[in-house]
């Protein structure tokens, strides 16, 4: 494997690590309260940019994969802080942001996370062109790529994380360490964050 550099992504997306919304199960109802039985869900009828802030936030499954540090292969022809380019390999590590709750998923201090991790940026519709470096199972990436929500997504289970965890889609099912204890390095690279199913 060629030399690796710690990913310092574009300002518009993550400065590692990226922490997004807290887990769905800890946010309000955990389900789309206005949906009628059999009515098409908002994620089936609306594009991502057209969603309300509440709908947008509810898409986050709280998997925590975006809170893992990532590495890019060293690039000779780009500035060190250049955003990830399409076609570049992104390597996930098992080293997470110190704020990640590794037992329940999600950020332990989401509303005030910038006090502790100033570079943490919230994903918005303006970032969709860069979504290829979110994990393949991320709901925002899946919808942007026209793949829909997976059957295990908490929105389809009344906010429960159980199906997601059973499918191995959350960091809570894996050994994860904190960046307060470990440095992201080639030795910490893992492939499980790249798994997706359904
Ligand atoms: S990877 Fe996507 S779905 Fe998972 S926690 Fe991050 S933003 Fe939410």
From TrEMBL:
Stored InterPro entries: Puta_zinc/iron-chelating_dom (IPR005358), UCP006173 (IPR008228)
Region Disordered: start and end of each range? 17-36
Cross-referenced Pfam families: CxxCxxCC
| PANTHER family xref list | UPF0260 PROTEIN YCGN (PTHR37421:SF1)
> How is this protein named in the record?
YcgN family cysteine cluster protein
Q: What species does this protein belong to? A: Aliidiomarina haloalkalitolerans
């Amino acid at each position: 494997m060629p030399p690796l550099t710690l990913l310092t992504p574009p300002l518009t997306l993550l400065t590692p690590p990226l922490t997004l919304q807290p887990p769905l199960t800890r946010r309000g109802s955990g389900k789309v309260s206005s949906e009628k039985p059999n009515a098409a869900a908002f994620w089936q009828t609306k594009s991502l940019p057209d969603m309300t802030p509440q709908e947008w936030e509810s898409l986050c499954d709280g998997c925590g994969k975006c809170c893992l540090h990532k590495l890019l292969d060293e690039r000779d022809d780009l500035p060190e802080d250049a955003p990830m380019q399409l076609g570049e390999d992104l390597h996930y590590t098992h080293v997470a942001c110190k704020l990640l709750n590794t037992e329940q998923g999600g950020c332990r201090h989401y509303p005030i996370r910038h006090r502790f991790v100033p570079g943490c940026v919230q994903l918005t519709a303006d970032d969709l062109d860069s979504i290829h470096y979110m994990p393949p199972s991320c709901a925002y990436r899946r919808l942007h790529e026209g793949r829909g929500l997976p059957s295990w997504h908490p929105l389809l289970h009344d906010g429960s994380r159980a199906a997601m965890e059973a499918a191995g889609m959350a960091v809570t099912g894996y050994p994860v360490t904190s960046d307060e204890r470990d440095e992201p390095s080639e030795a910490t690279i893992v492939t499980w964050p790249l798994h997706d199913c359904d």
